[in-house]
Amino acid sequence: MKAFLDVECSATGRRWVGPSIEDTRQCEAMEQATGLPPALCTTLVRRGVPPMEADSFLEPKLRDLLPDPLTMLDMDPAAARFERAVERNERIAIFADYDVDGGSSAALLIVWLRQMGRKATLYIPDRIDEGYGPNEPAMEALARDHDLIICVDCGTLSHGPIAAAKGADVIVLDHHLADETLPDCVAVVNPNRQDESGTLSYLCAAGVVFMLLVDVNRRLRAKNVRGPDLMALLDLVALATVADVAPLIGLNRAFVRQGLSVMAKRERIGLVALADVAGMDSAPTSYHLGFLLGPRVNAGGRIGAADLGARLLATDDRFEAEKLAQQLNMLNRERREIENAVREEATAQAEARGLDGALVWAAEDGWHPGVVGIVAARIKESTNRPAVVIGFEGDIGKGSGRSVTGIDLGAAIQRVAAEGLLMKGGGHKMAAGLTVHRDQLEPAMERLAELLARQGADRMGPADLRLDGILMPGAATVELIEQIEKAGPFGASASAPRFAFPDSTILFAKKVGANHLKISFGDGLGARIDAIAFGAYDGPIGPMLEGHKGARFHLAGRLEINIWQGRQSVQLRLEDAAPAS
After folding, report:
1. 1-35 tens-digit pLDDT
2. What is the pTM of this model?
3. Which long-range contacts (CB under 8 A, 24 or more apart) does 165-171 make?
4. Is 176 within 8 Å of 410 (Cβ atoms)?
5. How would you label 111-136 residue by residue, b for 16+ Cβ within 10 Å and e otherwise?
6. What distance in Å separates the CA atoms of residue 245 and residue 493, rounded to the nearest whole number?
7. 3-state class of 159 per DSSP?
8. Are 458 and 18 in contact, with CB atoms under 8 Å apart?
9. 326, 278 in Cβ contact below 8 A?
């Protein structure tokens, strides 16, 4: 297939690929059958939506997409035990992971219990001192003072720590990949158990917790007891789904669509306080969840007190919410500085080792374990290879990995751990964590690369840039963007449409912040659009367009509505560029 606009190698080293002849034919058929605008039809076709399902896709309803929670293994004993604990006012502890999904999952349970007149103890392990997941000392201590411990976004692989919780019952609500054997406890509800059907494998932990609450509410109704309003909790499920980069397909689309509507009402004081310190001045979108709110909720678990994010999401005290939001915002700024320093060192080390193998990795003493995952994600994006970044303290290294589409990193890391080369490790397809002894670092990475090569990771070139068509500046309107957004929310496995603006003239170009680029461009016919390219000076796009010298360029990116002082305008989030020959 011929390169789109003849761009074989763009500024970012990618080949541009446009709609196929079959895509174009299906778009025309979609227009005729539905009467929907062409740009929206293009998006629907790319998502594989047939014309007869267009209406239901554009208006996803929870009642249509939510399965019976009891279709999930162990849901029945989990819901029954939780309901019993509530009825008898038992002592409940929630052991949560320190990321957004863990914090949101914990907040879901805490808020639900509060509305039922019950309380729970929140326990989130310190990332550095305790590491990921339940540990024996913590579980022993919790078991001494509680009747029920609920592990959220963790616990599936925690056989020893759960066995140590003597005297207390344990429920696991998780989504990470499981082994063949499960911990001995009341229930392990996890759509990624090996004996599960896999139909809900895309859920994050908060989605699993929500399913549990649906069934518990149903049990309460059967006893003429009114449970809390679950729809009002969907803002937490949406935040976790997007921040955990869960695929926005099926039930997750409905979670996020409805959750954004709930969030727009500004009734959860913790999220309101965080949105205000983050400078959110428009209705929430999946972008805001993933890039403004999510990183701030995560900041506590990365470099501060692990429970800050969960406490913010669960609080009903406005003063506490504002105080926690300020803390998290400050920690997020500090996190960025640490991340930038580690990324620079890790990138240099990875480049020296080589970027053409099945695995790109870097390890060093003193790298903060709270940022290695973000740095791995940045390296993965720039190399289109699975990436692992490890920070050592003494002889123990804690690392995090991020993968590319089609390569199951979590399963590979789990296997290396099972073979004894890692102290522990696991996760899911696109992200995983590990702990390794210094003596085993090289053989562990060599074995991991071998397993990833079997999946084809060493044969991946620069990712093609898929484009949905050509637009001219005059056609890019606020109304067009609003039409396209009806096919959202956009995110993992559901990317927003990307358009090319051909043969464009750079009218204005300026570096903003540390490494971003702001430009205005036009087509010579009077219409012009503003564009922002984040991180443009980390690669060639910034210098190339700032020093354009009157040359013309093909520009590619995603359209968005920019709001400034109450006025809406079109903005291009610029992702790539190529000289127009």
Report:
1. 789 999 999 999 899 999 999 999 999 999 999 99
2. 0.91
3. 165/139, 165/140, 166/140, 167/143, 168/93, 168/142, 168/143, 169/81, 170/139, 171/78, 171/81, 171/82
4. yes
5. bbbeebebebebbbbebeeebbbbbe
6. 9
7. helix
8. no
9. no
